Amino acid sequence: EVQLLQSGGVVVQPGRSLRLSCAASGFTLGDYSMHWVRQAPGKGLEWVALIHWDEDSTSVKGRFIISRDVDKNSLYLQINTVRPEDSAFYYCAKVGRPMAPIREDYFKDWGQGTLVTVSS
Amino acid sequence: QSVLTQPPSVSGALGQRVTISCTGSTSNIGSRYDVFVHWYQQRPGTVPKLLIYGENNRPSGVPDRFSASKSGASASLAINGLQAEDEADYYCQSYDSSLTRLLFGGGTKLTVL
Fold first, then answer.
1. Of B56 and A57, which is predicted with more confidence?
2. Buried (b) or exposed (e) across B67-91, using 16+ Cβ within 10 A?
3. Is A58 on the interface with B (CB under 8 A)?
4. Measured between alpha carbons, how far is A50 from A58 in angstroms, rounded to an integer?
5. Is A21 in contact with A66 (CB distance < 8 Å)?
6. In the prediction, which pLDDT does A101 show?
7. Of B34, B38, B47, Cβ closest to residue A106
8. Which residues of B lie closer than 8 Å to A, measured between beta carbons?
9. Using CA atoms, how far apart are residues B39 and B19, in angstroms rounded to an integer?
10. Are the Cβ atoms of A106 and B48 closer than 8 angstroms?
C-alpha cells in the first residue's frame, strides 16, 4: 500500500527558510516523479514543484527547492525567504505511472498535508 | 486567474446529472500533442482525491457515475445520479507546453440540492 507521510505543521517568521518532508513507502521512490502541490486556506490547488523520476530535472516555482533521498525514501521541499502568501497546506503527491514523461503526469497518491503558517 | 477556467460553482438536485467544464487553450487541453485532462474531488477538510485520469479512466473505487470527455480546448466532467456525498470541490488538471508545467483549474464547488 502506498503511503506518503508528511512532517507536522509549522509556524515560521517571514524571511526565514523551512524544509518540509514526505516519507514514502509501498513503492520505489526512484521510479516515480514526485510533486508538491499547495492550497491556501479557502483557495484552489496550485502546483509548486516537480522532481523527475530519473532526477535529471526538477521544476519549481520561484523560491522553492525540491529534492529527494532514495535511500531514506523521502521527498523534501525547501522554501526560502518565506512570505505571508506562502501560508498554505502543502501536499506531496506521487504520480500515477512509473517513469512517465511530465506531460502525462497526474496525482494518484497524496500525503496528508502540512500546514505552513507564515507569521511574525 | 487560472490558465484552465472552471465555473466557480454548479448545483444540481439529488439524482440529476451535472457537468463541470474546464476550458484551456492550444498550449494545454487543445494541444496537437496528446495532452490529457485529469479530475480530482476534494470534500471539505480532506485531501484531494483522483477521480478521473487519462482518457476517462476511473481509479478503483470511483463509481461509474463519474465520466469525462474532451473536445478541442475544453474538457468536461459529468456526474450522473447526483448523491449527497458528491458535494465537494472539483478540479481539472493538465499539462501546458508553453509553461512546461502541470497546472490546475481554479476549482468548481458542487452543491447538491
1. B56
2. ebebeebbbbbebeebeeebbbbbb
3. no
4. 5
5. no
6. 87
7. B38
8. 2, 33-36, 38, 40, 42, 47-50, 53-54, 59, 89, 91, 93, 95, 97, 100-107
9. 12
10. no
What confidence score (pLDDT) does residue A102 get?
87
Distance CA A65, CA A14 (A): 17
Question: For residue A56, is pLDDT > 70?
Answer: no
CB contact under 8 A, B48 and A112: no
Residue A37 has a pLDDT of 97
A8 contacts chain B (CB < 8 A): no
Identify the band that residue A62 occupies on the pLDDT scale cut at 50, 70 and 90: confident
Which of B36, B38, B48 lies closest to A110 in CB terms?
Answer: B48
Grid coordinates representing A94 are 506521487
Contact criterion met (CB below 8 Å) for B91 and A44: yes
CA-nearest residue to B48 within chain A is A110
Per-residue 3-state assignment (H helix, E strand, C coil) for chain B:
CCCEECCCEEEECCCCCEEEEEECCCCCCCCCCCCCCEEEEECCCCCCEEEEECCCECCCCCCCCEEEEEECCEEEEEECCCCHHHCEEEEEEEEECCCCEEEEECCEEEEEC
